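dumping these here so i dont lose them again. two proteins, back to back, each one seq then structure tokens. dont judge the mess
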Amino acid sequence: MYVVTICVLISSLSFFAYAFSYFNEPHMKNEFKRFGLEKIGLTTILLEIAGALGLLVGLKFYFVLMISSLGLALLMFAGLIIRIKLRDSIWISLPAFFYMVLNTSIFLTSIKLMM
């Protein structure tokens, strides 16, 4: 359980930091423009905030952990697909891949915890 807690903290704090930077650094909004997703940028950030909060709440309620980690994994999968379509380098795409794998592993672990 200790490893899951560390993974949840890494993921949730990272998503909170990303959301904070979206509101405070113009280049983050420019990334959504580059992706062709500026109309849903705020929605994406709000989903990330909800997922990060859900991960923390999920440490107490495993069903919430399962839903939140799955949602964030799917969000990062979509982000990875977009980066591949834009032909971003592996180095630039690596964070989306990392957080997809991290949240997928949290999701799989949460299923085991619920049993």
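---- next one ----
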Amino acid sequence: MKLLHQIERINLLHQLIVKEHTHTPCVLAKRLNISVSRLYAIIDELKAMGAPIYYCRNKCTYFYATPYDINISVSFTPLNAAEQKL
């Protein structure tokens, strides 16, 4: 599913940023299997949601300026008979 893949990609991006182990945008985009322009778009979207993401040219990595967490999850559960009638 495309949605689940996107969630996994954002979760991986977050983990790499927390560890300050993203490398250059080109390397990161390849690791996430997306274009560099798409990477920039995702980062811009996260910034618009308040994520304090910056890039350090000396360390060649993205990082959070302040502690930040992203928690995206999806769960699937079967409905019981009462819930199916709603």
